[in-house]
Specification:
Layout lengths: L9 H13 L2 H21 L6 H34 L2 H6 L5 H33 L13 H22 L4 H23 L9 H22 L4 H22 L6 H9 L10 H4 L6 H27 L8
């Protein structure tokens, strides 16, 4: 039985929130849509005049970047703003449960759900690069790799449908978990069978993109306290756009204290998008990972405490 004590209830709350996220239709639809787009990109990149691999990686990295942010915002809005709207938060906070524990559980659940969302997309990218691009008649294209891409999708859909029909399991959550497991197995088999080494080093920049999606979560939590999903989505992506160009607009004006404060408040998403790491095949230094991780931790902690201070001083029984 769930005991509502400070922080002791955190694992149970994370588990419940995680299940609620992966049961949402937007979660698996966004992942499957992005997966099919990544798998189909060789058909579009064949017209890039012998620079197809770079175009394919750039396009799909941008797709993963945006889908991660979209899933993060929608998931946060559904389990924070949605629960406030449905009065679920009122029931939870009527127990001896701190509001900070409530917010922290939502943040951790979204971070875990994003890992599950990123697994199929990076597997798809690596296997799609193994397929190759038919740029010319002499291009080496491994069409047999398509079996490794589509069999996990079909198998997960069939098993999840059977589990839904015979065991009354939720299709969306069953599908996305099975899909991720089958894809990891499929990629592992392909890795052993492939004559040329797969581009497994792409996992490193994907970790940076995952951090960017985690960073947007507390921002979406703050906005979800006041608005619906469209409000949260609109202003979160506006902040995201500002974060992409903040260095360009404000980088040369940091000698001004006011500009420096504004620059510090706007999340800097440029630190997560380092194109040289995959175009020039450079390794990401451990020190860079550590600095980005510290930045994400401090920014998220600050935003969570700001959201907590607002939630602590407001009544949630009446919704937003």
């Amino acid at each position: 039985m769930l005991q509502f004590r400070p922080m002791r209830a955190l694992p149970s709350l994370i588990h419940v929130s995680f299940k609620n996220i992966i049961r949402q239709s937007f979660f698996y639809l966004a992942i499957v849509g992005a997966y099919l787009f990544i798998v189909s990109t060789p058909a579009f990149t064949m017209f890039t005049f012998f620079d197809a691999e770079k175009f394919l990686i750039d396009t799909n990295m941008a797709t993963i970047f945006l889908v991660g942010l979209l899933v993060s915002v929608l998931a946060t809005s559904s389990i924070v703003g949605g629960e406030i709207e449905d009065k679920t938060t009122t029931l939870l906070l009527s127990k001896p449960l701190s509001r900070f524990t409530f917010l922290l559980s939502k943040f951790c659940a979204v971070a875990l759900a994003l890992i599950l969302a990123f697994i199929p997309l990076i597997c798809a990218l690596i296997m799609t690069l193994e397929v190759g691009v038919p740029e010319a008649t002499w291009s080496d294209v491994n069409y047999h790799t398509l079996w490794f891409e589509f069999l996990p999708l079909i198998g997960a859909a069939l098993v999840a449908a059977a589990a839904n029909y015979y065991a009354d399991k939720n299709f969306a959550s069953s599908f996305i978990i099975l899909f991720s497991i089958f894809l990891v197995i499929s990629l592992s088999i392909l890795w052993f069978m492939s004559k040329a080494p797969l581009q497994m080093d792409l996992f490193y920049p994907i970790i940076l993109l995952w951090m960017s999606s985690v960073l947007i979560c507390p921002i979406a939590s703050l906005l979800a306290l006041k608005g619906n999903v469209f409000f949260t989505l609109t202003f979160t992506f506006l902040i995201f756009a500002l974060g992409l160009v903040s260095n360009w607009f404000l980088g040369g004006l940091l000698h001004n204290p006011g500009i420096r404060i504004v620059y510090s408040i706007i999340p800097n998403f440029q630190v997560f998008w380092i194109e040289e790491f995959w175009t020039k095949k450079e390794y990401i230094p451990i020190a860079y990972f550590w600095n980005v991780l510290k930045y994400v931790f401090l920014y998220c902690a600050g935003m969570l405490f700001l959201t907590w201070s607002i939630l602590e001083n407001r009544e949630v029984s009446g919704g937003r």
